[in-house]
Specification:
72 residues; 4-stranded antiparallel β-sheet; 4 strands
């Protein structure tokens, strides 16, 4: 609900998520500076959209809980 309508143009991604099975992969590359998310299917860009600012806290909590250091 708090995703912006149009993202800024910086796209400096610091988060990513890769989902894979035997036949395909999907990668979500995320920039919380401009709230953009790029989706890649099998290595090819397939979509660009926005992501909610609140999602940053979810990603950071998951990383922190797994003892993965956050970038400064």
């Amino acid at each position: 609900a708090d995703a912006p309508g149009l993202p800024a143009l910086c796209f400096i991604p610091r988060h990513g998520l890769r989902l894979m099975d035997e036949d395909a992969s999907v990668e979500y590359v995320i920039c919380f500076e401009c709230y953009s998310i790029h989706t890649y299917r099998d290595g090819e860009l397939s979509a660009k959209s926005t992501i909610a600012a609140s999602a940053r806290h979810v990603f950071n909590r998951i990383l922190s809980d797994a003892a993965i250091p956050l970038a400064k």
